[in-house]
Design a protein that fits this description.
300 residues, alpha/beta, eight-stranded parallel barrel, 8 strands, 44% helix, globular
Length: 300
């Protein structure tokens, strides 16, 4: 039996072998590169004890964050927010200072609704419009609207029709302004998906707060997946006060990062709480530690 092999057979076998070895490399080269997701870290001016104060910007820089969520001011029983940013000269100071420090105003917060009723306040449209006008003047694309204790849809389900109706109106106002209003509710993720379907506006999304599922014993990572990339506009990426993020045993930030990567979500991670219970008023220490930790996870 001859062991000789023709030159043609040899070349054919070689081509097959080489092709088999090289094909995965070709395939990888032809596949689109996976987009690198971008995350920025912000603090809340109210929580760093500088609500609508120009000094919030320098403090944000000192803390090491990339931006700040600015509050619309107190509400109480006023017809609208006590909003200093409605004054052009004060607003310009914020714009100039943010530019000087290379910071962004990532969102405007209507925290007055934590204690006041979005469902029953007669002048809610004026309040929302004031926020939208300020957003436009500051070039901010996200507003934070908590439904608060009085708008808790688990404890006050009878308010749901009024809240849905009002959020439909807000959604249309936000659409015309070209911005997103992110709501925070007491519902779980499944309940929020249903609520958003009922509202039916792409301009109303969820402003996700890590502490809500955590304090209720729900699965934070599963809730993020249930909501999905297109329903979440921004995140308060902290837990209740007690320990810094890096010392929090019920929150795995690397798992959060992986979950968000799987979803393809990117955006602002806003530090609201997670202050050290033994030194809660030490703003630079608490928010500096949390900002550094979030950046080490999400910007490395």
């Amino acid at each position: 039996m001859s062991h000789s092999i023709s030159r043609r057979d040899f070349l054919s076998a070689g081509a097959l072998l080489t092709g088999g070895l090289l094909l995965p490399s070709w395939a990888n080269a032809l596949a689109p590169a996976k987009k690198k997701l971008t995350y920025k870290v912000a603090v809340v001016d109210l929580m760093i004890l500088k609500r609508q104060k120009l000094g919030a910007l320098q403090l944000t820089k000192d803390i090491g964050a990339d931006g700040v969520e600015v509050d619309m001011g107190g509400l109480g029983q006023r017809e609208t927010f006590d909003n200093q940013l409605a004054k052009p000269e004060i607003r310009q100071q914020f714009i100039d200072k943010a530019k000087e420090l290379n910071l962004e105003i990532c969102s405007l917060a209507m925290t007055g609704f934590y204690a006041q009723s979005f469902a029953t306040r007669p002048t809610y449209q004026r309040m929302i419009q004031d926020c939208l006008d300020t957003m436009k003047a500051l070039n901010v694309k996200v507003a934070f609207l908590p439904l608060g204790t009085q708008g808790d849809l688990r404890k006050n389900p009878e308010l749901r029709p009024a809240i849905v109706e009002r959020l439909k109106v807000v959604g249309e106002m936000a659409r015309k302004a070209g911005v997103i209003v992110g709501i925070e509710t007491a519902l779980d993720a499944k309940g929020e998906v249903e609520l958003l379907k009922e509202i039916g506006s792409k301009n109303i999304q969820i402003y996700f707060n890590f502490s809500n599922p955590l304090k209720e014993g729900r699965d934070l990572y599963a809730e993020l997946k249930t909501l999905g990339r297109k329903r979440i506009c921004q995140m308060h990426a902290t837990d209740e006060d007690g320990v810094w993020l890096q010392n929090n045993t019920r929150l795995d930030m690397n798992k959060v990062k992986q979950t968000l990567a799987d979803m393809g979500w990117e955006g602002w991670l806003v530090i609201e709480r997670s202050r050290d219970a033994t030194d809660p008023r030490n703003v630079k220490k608490n928010f500096g530690a949390n900002a550094a930790y979030l950046k080490s996870v999400f910007q490395s």
